[in-house]
Amino acid sequence: MKTPNIRHLNPMLQMFVLFGLIFITLFLVMLLGKLVADWGYGINLLDPDFAKDPSAEGVTAVQRWLMVLNQLGFFLIPALLFGQMMYSEEQSYFPLKKPNLMQFGLAIVLVFAMQTPIDFLLRLNSSLPLGDEVMSDINEMEVKAAFMIKQLIGEGSFADVAIAMIILAIIPAIAEEFFFRGVLLQTFRASFRNAHLAVWMTAIVFSFIHMQFLGFIPRMMLGALLGYLMVWSGSIWLSIIVHFFNNALGVFLMFQFGAEVNTISQQAETNWLMLSVGSLFTIGTIYFFHRFRLKDQNHQEPFNTFE
User: Fold this and answer.
1) Cβ–Cβ under 8 Å, residues 226 and 243
2) What is the reported pTM?
3) Nearest partner of 200 among 223, 176, 173, 229, judged by Cα
4) What distances in angstroms separate CA 8 from CA 16, 77, 85, 219, 303, one per listed residue?
5) In this predicted model, which residue has the larger pLDDT, 143 or 238?
6) Over the chain, what is the mean pLDDT?
7) Fewer CB atoms near the end CB (10 Å): N or C, the chain?
């Protein structure tokens, strides 16, 4: 069966197609998740209290399955299907250029350099005067998120670490980058004819959809950085690499300090020296990415605005 091609459609109509794909694939993978929970673990997902006792048999395994299926159904599968529908014989829809060694090295430096600026933005975000009622709702959401992550990371065995790396670092890095930077950014660019606007709109959606608003600003900045990395390099693999190492570092810290590591960070004193050094390294690395980006003529058109 031939895949329908939607390249000729208006970008806004393409967005509706994307939403339709998300609805269909998310419904199918959630149905699969229910079958896995029912038949494999004897757990009824329609029971709102099924996850209240994480020590109950099968609960952690089901939560892990649901996390994976959510990443696949909401992000990766719709993105790949959309990319196939945008197929052209001249070029791939996704910017799949292989990054060179210098870009890879700069990406690793960037992951570690940006941690102190992100940490500072996290504290800044959490100190915003949003009102008692709003903060109460946000804190409740953060507690639920921390509880779920605590379930996912398990007891800290080697197997738990490996599973957490797969669920919280590898799969999200691939799935979310193909969806946000691979599809959403390009669709916004085609819609508004402004690549910078596309990067920032994608970053806002990327942060909002995580539903953890105490970290909205730092996650938005991370999303913008990932967008510019893909744009400047012509490679989605670079944004995947940075996304993976950033998440992997977070997983490592959670195993060291617990799922409440962000709360610990928010309560700590700002080390202005570390913040200054980290900020300088981050800005310097971004500058080198921009200054020495590849001039390959095979970059896809949406990124030519940056040349």
Assistant:
1) yes
2) 0.86
3) 223
4) 14, 22, 10, 33, 19
5) 238
6) 83
7) N
Q: Supply the pLDDT for residue 1.
A: 54
Sign of CA dihedral 6, 11, 15, 18: positive
- The reported pLDDT for the residue numbered 267 is 54
Question: Among 46, 62, 93, where does a domain finish?
Answer: 93
Lookup result for tokens 């870009």: 103
Looking at the fold, whether 31 and 119 belong to one and the same domain comes out as no
Confidence grade of residue 305 (pLDDT, cut at 50, 70, 90): very low
Q: How buried is residue 8: exposed, middle or buried, by Cβ count under 10 Å (0-12/13-18/19+)?
A: exposed
- Both 216 and 87 in a single domain? no
289 or 28, which is more confident?
Answer: 28
- Pull the structure tokens for residue 97: 């250029």
State whether 60 and 117 are in the same domain: no
Q: How far is CA 280 from CA 104, 265, 274, in A?
A: 19, 21, 10
**Cα–Cα distance, 138 to 197 (Å, whole number):** 28
For residue 107, how many other CB atoms are within 10 A of its CB?
23
Q: How many domains does the chain fold into?
A: 2
Same domain, 163 and 287: yes
154 and 79 in a common domain: no
Identify the domain containing residue 236 by its residue range.
95-306
Higher pLDDT residue, 195 or 126? 195
Q: What pLDDT score does 256 carry?
A: 74
Residue with tokens 């990443």, as numbered in its chain: 71
Structure tokens at 23: 């609805």
Nearest to 77 by CA among 35, 33, 18: 18
Residue 302 is predicted with a pLDDT of 43
